[in-house]
Amino acid sequence: MLNQQRVRSQIPNYIVLLLLALFALTPIVILFFNSVKTTVEIGRNPIGFPEELRLDNFGDAWQQGGYAVTIRNSLIMMSATIVSSLTLAGLAAYALARLKLRGSALIAFYFLVGTSVPPQLFMVPLFIAWRQLGLINTHLGMIIIYTGLYSPFATYLLRSYMIGLPEEFMEAARIDGASNFQIFRTIILPLSWPGFMTAGLVIGLNVWNEFLFAVTFLLDPSLKPVATSLFEFQGRFSRDWGLTSAGSVIMVIPIIVLFLFLQRRFIEGLTQGGLKG
Amino acid sequence: MASTITIHPRSSTDRSQHSSQSAWGRWLFILPLLILNLIVVVVPSIFGLLLAFTDWSGYGPINFIGLKNFTALFEDPIFFKSLGNNLIWTAIFLTVPIAVGLLGAYMLSGIKRGQIFFRIVYFLPYVFASVVNTQIWRQILHPRVGIGPILAEYGISFLDFPIFGTRETALLGVAFVDGWHFWGFLVILYLSAMVAVDTELYEVARLDGATRFQQFRFVTLPSIRPTLVFTILMITIWSSLVFDYVFIMTGGGPANSSEVMGTYLYQNAFQRFDVGYAASIGVMMSLWVMLAIAGFTYLRWRGWEI
Description:
The structure holds 2 protein chains of 2 kinds. Helices cover 78% and strands 0% of the residues of chain A.
């Protein structure tokens, strides 16, 4: 009886929630519908169910958009940025969380300020410096920038993870004479891999989606990541809605699959880091 | 925890540097990250500040020209247009997405079944790239192949015009698209704050005969205030930095009507090669961020629980 009453009182909640879900999902569904329509059909039927599945769009977009190259470029930058950021951030987080570092409050403050500097303030001087160093139009140049941009976030996330680890293990190792680095490698790393995984996912997603630095620093089409090359592709085929929709779908499918499998980690990482995508 | 764990260190040769390892040794852990951050963010930021007082084009000699860039900025109608647009953007994002986010989170906190489903759906647009989200809405709101002409056939004609190509609506259209991808993020933040609220408070309110809206107003809102204030600060900062969505959808046009500081700076730096002027816009953007953080710190100093 009581239970029934409770269910009935939740009906307004579900109505509102379903409407919001429709608002979030419908545009994405429309994108998927359009990715298998011809442009003529989109003109006739811009948001409805496709009349027939035209999967050729994907092959055409893959070819014309050069996805074989751009996905490779994105993967190179993602994997290298993830490895280098997690290495630097892991060490730094360990020092901040576990070693009694004098001035660690100052460093935490520095990171807070450092991460809220507008990219537009340092982007132009960075561009000029990178030009002098020959790092424009190189993946290495981008990896250095991304590592510099994202490792403070990873440090913050890993630090809060490492603070929660039980102290006893480290004490025991210290009594056995292990150095700080040995403790880091044999105890902290194995225990905090979930934190590393969350940070790695968020960094990977950010590199995959990043636009401002990629559009500024990578002008050679053979080096562009998926995001900026899709931007250029959309401009070139601006009237070919079926083709460009298929191109967008190619870009989001890996993200959707990963997100569905690891949603808890993604959501936790993105909401804790306070990074805007 | 009853389990016992024994640690076998690989070697005990470096006993000398155990817990009493020097302070310098500990700093080594954090130094690589600090140095990289200095190279990528701090040093270029200092140069960014200095360049604002020059007329540099990016090549050749650098001339210091004092405050000329700033006096020019304050006479530049396009800069004021951009600054105004950033303010409008802030006003929009501080109201609409926060309201929808609070509504979604409050409704979600009241149900048991399907919570995970809704969380996933609401968050999905947030993990999509800006290039994809802009493509989605450019098509849906397209004056020829979008929903505008279809709705017009049923007599609903308010969307039957080029939203992104009309001066009065371009900025609002772009803000709508960015907001569509953003509000789900707020739902998750507010929800995690709401589930932490003591359920007894709600029971007391119910016994007092409070309606659901009153419960929201007098129990939920005060309880999640730290999260709410935090999101207000973040949105205020992010609204000064907006770039992607405007750059991709309108490029600041038509006729600078949707120009924001981020796109105007980009234009000056990379299309007009007026690096000094661009840098002075960057300084204004940093001032905005500093003011927001200072305001936040002041409120906390005044004893607000935030």
